TrEMBL record:
Pfam families noted in UniProt: HTH_18
Start and end residues of each HTH araC/xylS-type domain: 189-290
Keyword DNA repair: no
Lineage of the organism: Bacteria, Pseudomonadati, Bacteroidota, Cytophagia, Cytophagales
Coiled-coil blocks: none
Keyword field: DNA-binding, Transcription, Transcription regulation
Protein name listed in UniProt: Helix-turn-helix domain-containing protein
SMART domains according to UniProt: HTH_ARAC
Originating organism: Dyadobacter frigoris
Superkingdom assignment: Bacteria
Cross-referenced InterPro entries: Homeodomain-like_sf, HTH_AraC
Length: 292
């Protein structure tokens, strides 16, 4: 997979008013061209009016009504317009932009951007007016001469994210801060940091005991905590994350199976093939042929 795209690479030579940490645009500013499958090195929130298809990790999502789209640097995605008209706004920003006033803020812990979060939130007719107004306010302030405009933009962005979190069921974002929750959170964060993989930086942490050692807990303790909080064991989390990455590499890169096997930490392609077939019921080669 290619290295993550930067903001300037994402837009090529058509980037107006470029800022390195925050930008906002109307969708009309750019012709609706397909966005190729890749990771980007920035966060993106889009308010979309129109029909399109989002390929996010290994999921295909048809978007056929007003929606908020959330993408982040850790998950590769592609986007393809279906309807001719694509209206709305999108904002691009970095974690550093939000950390300017809160150095302890970690956006990957947000319910909107953490691993497994839903990338699409459909906006009801009652919500559309207010959400649209937030984007319009950000667009206006971004192009103003106000000396403190980025502080104001940061506030607007936080309001937007809180409005999106309200759209989730309460159980999705209220956290019980007990010991099991803390251990599970640390494990999932550590697991997430191992990806994306590449040929020069293959996956090295593949066993439950490796994670337990880094977290300074016994592997049985880690298993119990994960089972209590997530319903899955350490091995199930590891296998699921490796399968997710493997599918993305098989379908969206031109790496051969041996290269994919190496990048995921398998010494021999046969071991990887056996693992993949056991987890998915299909072989890597068959999956690639089906998506050719």
């Amino acid at each position: 997979m290619k290295k993550p795209e930067s903001v300037s690479e994402y837009f090529g030579d058509k980037l107006p008013n470029a800022g390195s940490r925050f930008n906002i645009y109307e969708c009309d500013d750019f012709r609706a061209k397909p966005v190729p499958y890749n990771r980007r090195d920035f966060y993106k929130i889009t308010l979309q009016f129109g029909t399109s298809r989002l390929e996010y990790a290994d999921k295909g999502i048809l978007i056929d009504k007003p929606a908020l789209l959330f993408t982040n640097p850790r998950i590769p995605y592609s986007w393809e317009p279906i309807s001719e008209e694509q209206k709305g706004y999108f904002v691009l920003f970095t974690e550093e932009f939000l950390q300017d006033t809160n150095s302890d803020f970690a956006i990957e812990n947000s319910p909107l951007f953490r691993l497994g979060a839903d990338p699409v939130y459909y906006v009801s007719p009652e919500q559309v007016t207010y959400i649209l107004q937030i984007f319009q306010n950000m667009h206006k302030e971004f192009h103003s001469d106000y000396v403190h405009k980025f502080e104001l933009l940061r506030n607007h962005l936080n309001v937007l994210m809180h409005e999106a979190i309200k759209m989730q069921p309460v159980t999705n974002y209220l956290e019980n801060q007990n010991a099991s929750t803390r251990i599970s959170s640390l494990f999932l964060e550590l697991l997430d940091r191992q990806f994306p993989v590449d040929l020069q930086r293959p996956l090295t942490l593949r066993a439950p005991n490796q994670y337990a050692e880094l977290l300074s807990v016994h592997v049985n303790h880690l298993n119990r905590a994960l089972k209590e909080v997530t319903g899955k064991t350490t091995t199930e989390h590891l296998n699921g994350r490796i399968v997710l990455e493997a599918k993305a590499l098989i379908v969206h890169t031109d790496w051969n199976i041996a290269e994919i096997s190496h990048s995921l930490g398998y010494e021999y392609p046969t071991y990887f093939n056996n693992f993949f077939k056991k987890q998915t019921g299909s072989s890597p080669t068959l999956l690639r042929e089906q998506n050719a």
